[in-house]
Amino acid sequence: xSSTDTSLxxxxxxxxCRDGAHWRVEWRNPKIHNADRVKVWLACDEHxxxxxxxxxxxxxxxxxxxxxxADQAEGG
Length: 76
Hints:
single chain, alpha+beta, 3 strands, 22% helix, disordered N terminus
């Protein structure tokens, strides 16, 4: 794989955004997910707050953590 290959670069989950992600937005819908089921969206700096607020408005448990810190915690 060449150093210019970006296929493994994390990309923001916001619709239409192709910017690199720097944040993990970890959330779940408590009506359908047990506490141990966490979904992850990725966010660029511009959309971090938007994605958090979108989920928080729906009263979903949500946490935003730096992508690098989350990868290190998982042993990545």
